[in-house]
Design a protein that fits this description.
about 300 residues, alpha/beta, five-stranded mixed β-sheet, D-Maltodextrin-Binding Protein, domain 2
Length: about 300
């Protein structure tokens, strides 16, 4: 744990020292500069020996904190770590082809059931990040509707729109099945796919005006910390709470045994993730900095991951 913090601080210090290199007191810091540079150089040499780990990271805000935490922990253990920012289908295919090593945000057994059925012979569950992650259609608590059935006959009230994220996500596919199962298309509703950011912008604008809105939501997400919301009851069971897993490909244990062992001990709470996501949005704190803070504040968890 101490090694991780020292290496993270060393990297941050080197950037700061370089930025201030023309300071008139720079000569007094020569020894300190050399020590920091040596620490970073030693870590870079270790990276070459351990090899490269590649994470797939979706645009979902819930994926960023775990990915950044894992990245920093593995870097401190001597790995070079890359993060590919791509869509979920690309990540799963990338893991199958062993071009991507880990994905920190797989919702199973329900949300990604179809995709898991396709890839289950090629992929493995490395660890459970957190359990009982709720998802479904969400509305502000000030609207009267409490169930999916309550939406029937009220399409005009909601402009016939369910705002959602981009195509390819399990929550979007389930929403299409739900619309068919409840005959909501005949009732005047349709999905409006967009990015997560665009969806939340629409939602926040509607809530600011105290207008009705339906969107696809999940926890952890900072939107629940900012607003008084409720999940519409889905009596037909299209949406069910999931566990969220770290995934990799068959053979990862042999390809990168130490990284596999470290991430097999990974876990985090929904409350922790929502707090990080909220600070990122409200304070502008980067997920890289928030990850470093989490590592510093959770030495027992990090030591458990490292087997110490």
């Amino acid at each position: 744990m101490k090694k991780i913090l020292l290496l993270i601080l060393a990297s941050i210090s080197l950037v700061a020292i370089t930025a201030c290199g023309n300071n008139e007191d720079g000569n007094n810091n020569t020894a300190d500069n050399a020590e920091v540079e040596n620490d970073v150089a030693d870590n870079e040499a270790a990276n070459e020996e351990k090899g490269t780990i590649t994470f797939g990271q979706t645009p979902w805000s819930s994926t960023a904190p775990p990915t950044q935490i894992a990245k920093q922990i593995l870097e401190a253990q001597g790995y070079e770590v890359k993060v590919e920012h791509v869509s979920q289908p690309v990540i799963w295919e990338g893991m199958k082809n062993k071009e991507i090593d880990f994905f920190m945000d797989a919702w199973l057994p329900y949300t990604e059931a179809t995709r898991w059925e396709e890839y289950q012979d090629d992929l493995v569950k490395v660890a459970t990040s957190y359990e009982n992650a709720e998802l479904g259609w969400v509305v502000p608590s000030y609207v009267e509707e409490d169930t999916i059935e309550d939406l029937i006959g009220n399409a005009e009230k909601y402009d016939g729109e369910i705002v959602t994220i981009s195509e390819g996500a399990g929550i979007v596919n389930i929403s299409r099945d739900l619309i068919e199962g409840y005959n909501l298309e005949e009732a005047g509703y349709e999905l409006s796919p967009s990015s997560e950011g665009a969806m939340i912008t629409v939602v926040q604008d509607k809530i600011r005006k105290e207008e009705p809105v339906i969107f696809t939501g999940w926890r952890p997400h900072s939107v629940f910390a900012r607003n008084d919301l409720k999940f519409l009851e889905d009596t037909k069971g299209f949406f069910q709470a999931d566990n969220v897993y770290v995934l990799s490909y068959n053979g990862i244990e042999e390809a990168h045994p130490e990284a596999y062992e470290i991430l097999s001990n990974w876990s985090i709470s929904i409350a922790e993730l929502e707090a990080m996501m909220q600070e990122n949005e409200q304070e502008g704190t980067s997920f890289e900095e928030l990850a470093a803070q989490w590592i510093e504040e959770n030495p027992d968890k990090v030591d458990q991951m490292l087997g110490e």
